[in-house]
Amino acid sequence: MKKRLSVLALLMFAMVLFLAACGGSEEAGGETDGGNGDSGSEGGDKYKVGILAPEVTHGWVAAVAYHAENRAEELSDEIEYQVQTSADAGEMTSQLDDLLTWGAEAIVAFPQWEGMEVPIQRALDEGVEVVNFDIAIDTEGVYRVAGDNEDMGVQGANYIVDKIGTEGNVVIMENPSAGSVSELRTKGFEETMAEIAPDMNLMTYATEFTRQAGLSDFADILTANDQIDAVFSLDDETSVGVLQAIEEAGRSDIKVVTGGGGMQEYFQMMPENEDIWIQSALYSPAMVADAVDVALQVLKGEEVPEETIIPTTVVDRENYEEFLDENSPY
What we know:
Layout: H1 2-34, E1 47-54, H2 59-74, E2 79-86, H3 89-102, E3 106-109, H4 117-125, E4 129-133, E5 143-147, H5 149-164, E6 169-174, H6 180-196, E7 201-206, H7 211-224, E8 230-233, H8 236-249, E9 256-257, E10 260-261, H9 264-269, E11 277-278, E12 280-282, H10 288-299, E13 307-310, E14 313-315
Parallel strand pairs: 1-2, 1-3, 3-4, 4-5, 5-13, 6-7, 6-8, 8-9, 9-11, 10-12
Antiparallel strand pairs: 12-14
Helix pairs in contact: 2-10, 5-6, 7-8
């Protein structure tokens, strides 16, 4: 009887050891799935990165969240991420608080509205790294990634002069409601024109960054001007409307229409019109991928400049195919 009990005890002990070994193996596997021990934060976990973007169903702003999530997914071996989109500053503030509760170590934010300085400062005070995309706010310790608005104007001036020469009538389609974006693009354009084509006749009109405004406003401009050689439009959406107005008016005098942004529909129009050089000074929403990269670099302890300004790329019929993305919402 004692011998049978001893054998039974040994069998039970062996089973306990076996189950313990299995349980330990499953736990180790969970840690491996959770992140790369060589690249993650303390303890081998993935870094936690939150992404905040405005909630827009189409256009340039909507494409920001699209490209941010694409880049975060590409880095999913190193980061765990959440993407939050909001309709206003209040909702974005609430979502920022949710990301802090979640344990975000870095936040990539596109704070399009006023009033985000206080919540972003709160995140910084809690030791969270913050990388702003595009928007500059008056808060110490924030990293920023943006395009070069002034250089977009410089490149627009160079492009127009290259296509029509140093004399002609050029319409500037500025957008006063866009604040520093419009001011810097127009400044770069006008100052460069003054240097390389001082005899160019510049005519400035106000519009908005929508195709409807581009169509309506430029239709009026065409009526008021018998001869226009080129259009310095600051935005791709506006430019689509400008091109429609030109077509509907049957005008053949305009040889260049510039733009800015990174709109897929606008890119596809570039090879379709052989009579007009259609150009975009790329200020792509895809730049937000660089902001995600900066967040990861900061978390890794790498040296990163506080401000990263991405140079302008000129897109026209000769290279537009390099920038096509059928999945982009913009």
